[in-house]
Design a protein that fits this description.
This protein is α+β, with helices and mostly antiparallel strands. 28% of the residues lie in helices and 28% in strands. It has a single domain, classed as Signal recognition particle alu RNA binding heterodimer, srp9/1.
């Protein structure tokens, strides 16, 4: 994902949008709870990371040991088919 798309991705998340994206051929999902918590999970439900806030997720969530910022160029994001 290029820098501009990544900024749109983060802006959408901050508005409460939930996204499905692909990293190394694995689908991941970012979702939000009613109390401001956020989660990053594999779409198949086999792996989940829970955080107290979106800000914490963006700082601490890991994709194969990389933060979202570090993995940005390898993330595929777009309209689901």
């Amino acid at each position: 994902m290029n820098k501009d798309d990544y900024m749109l991705f983060k802006e959408g998340l901050s508005r409460g949008e939930e996204y499905l994206f692909t990293y190394h051929d694995v689908n991941y999902w970012i979702s939000h709870g009613p109390n401001g918590d956020s989660s990053l999970a594999r779409d198949d439900g086999t792996y989940c990371q829970d955080f107290n806030s979106l800000e914490e997720l963006l700082k601490k969530a890991k994709l194969e040991g990389k933060t979202l910022d570090e993995a940005r160029n390898e993330i595929e994001w777009g309209i689901a088919e």
